Fold this protein.
Amino acid sequence: MRFMMLVKHAEKNSGPPPKELMDALAKLSEEAVKAGTIVASGGLAPTAMSTRVRLSRGKISTIDGPFTEAKEIVGGYAVLEFKSKEEAVDGALRFMELHKKYWPGWEGETEVRQVFGPEDFPPQA
């Protein structure tokens, strides 16, 4: 089963992650590569470097960041293969434990969502 993990946090006052955290995350990523569970991962640029493309009332518009109304942003992601949702949640717990240990005071969450593929939607008759 494929899962996407979305790391969310307040953009204000977060600053760059500590080197110790980045080193621990690199080790965690190496373990995931060896286990064959990681598909893709990465950190995301600040919203000041972002653009939203919105469809509303039949019109498409673009909005350049930063987005002042955003209380939380997605700061990173990972796509991983696990045998079950429970395994995916355990992976997210390990990831957040590293944040707790190496970035005291940081607050955020990791959302675990299953990724559906075409095989999850039977053809319509």
Observations:
- The CA atoms of residues 18 and 104 lie 10 Å apart.
- Residues 2-117 form a domain with the Alpha-Beta Plaits fold (CATH 3.30.70.1060).
- Residues 85-102 form the longest helix (18 residues).
- The two ends are 26 Å apart (CA to CA).
